[in-house]
Amino acid sequence: MARQRFRFRLRAAEVPAAEALLELAGAEALSLCDAGDTPVLEPPVGETPLWPEVELSALFAADADLEPLAATLGDMIAGGADIDIARLEDEDWQRGGSQRIEPRRFGRLWLTSADAADRSRGTRQLRLHMGLAFGTGRHPTTALCLQWLGENPPLDRRVLDYGCGSGVLALAAHTLGAAHCWAVDNDPQALTATAENARLNGIEQALWIGPPEALFDIEVEIVMANILAGPLERLAKRFADCLVPGGTVVLSGILAAQRDRVEAAYAPGFRDFDCETLGDWIRLVGTRRDQEPAP
Questions:
Q1: Residue ranges in the chain assigned as alpha helix (H)
Q2: Helix, strand, coil tally for the chain in percent (to 5)
Q3: Do 142 and 271 belong together in one domain?
Q4: Residue 214 banded pLDDT, cuts 50, 70, 90
Q5: What is the CB neighbour count within 10 angstroms for residue 143?
Q6: CATH code of the domain in which 153 resides
């Protein structure tokens, strides 16, 4: 299957935020190189290459709409981004190789790779296939959400994971005792990844998995969304409509500089915002108002 290559240059200090934005936008693979074309494949979060200027390439599905992403990166990168988007056939992009998820603990939850040894003594273990979709717990935005779940196990709660990616948040919520979970994404690859990860953990019957347009009217106690700031702002009313009064919204995928505008979008329907920071990223948690203020 053909892919699109999204390639541009940027300063080393700008790499972590750009990588995160590309992953959140659905990038299937990332690679970095310097002027000598020495690759560093998907370095650990928080690490940037030593080269002062970096070429960053990302692979996307052939039908992905990359113009909004290009505009966002152009605003983010100093001096703008000269972005090259090219179509690649199979033989041009396939390089093989798989990655492992390093086991990570979030409260009572162990997040591990599909073939990892059992670590569940006194905890709950969630296994994930690597590379199917965004969401392995490695990125700060996902880690912030998993940290919240680990500290606030959703026992007997109904949970909506909107923009589910790999399904990690819905699956983690179920593993930690949620009564029922809905996993929603507009990317068919993400829905496939979520179904495969649910099957891997033997809980494929416990989740509703589907696109936003198929989501019927639901009422939940928790909404979690790890997507970009713009879509989060547009979804504020929809999330409020899904939540019971006193319910909780957990938002991530937000740069620290975007906090005020996201919080303002949610203020009519939510109160008591709490913010947690990890690197350049934040997690906002708010409580559903009993009723929205009169206009």
A1: 15-24, 67-76, 90-93, 140-151, 168-175, 188-200, 229-234, 236-242, 259-266
A2: 30, 30, 40
A3: yes
A4: very high
A5: 22
A6: 3.40.50.150
Q: What is the CATH number of the domain that holds 32?
A: 3.30.70.120
The amino acid that residue 269 corresponds to is G
Please give the Cα distance from 183 to 75 (Å, whole number): 31
Sole residue written with tokens 């940027």: 10
Between the alpha carbon of residue 178 and those of residues 141, 164, 207, 222, 246, the distances in Å are 21, 16, 10, 10, 17
What would the pLDDT profile of 20-71 be if each residue is shown by its tens digit?
Answer: 888 788 887 676 665 344 444 444 444 444 456 777 888 888 888 888 888 8
Q: Which of 44-58, 109-123, 165-179 has maximum average pLDDT?
A: 165-179
Q: Which domain holds residue 76?
A: 3-93
Measured CA to CA in angstroms, residue 40 lies from 33, 37, 217, 236 at distances of: 6, 10, 45, 38
Torsion over CA: 72, 147, 234, 63 (sign): positive
**Whether residues 185 and 43 fall in one domain:** no
* pTM across the whole model: 0.66
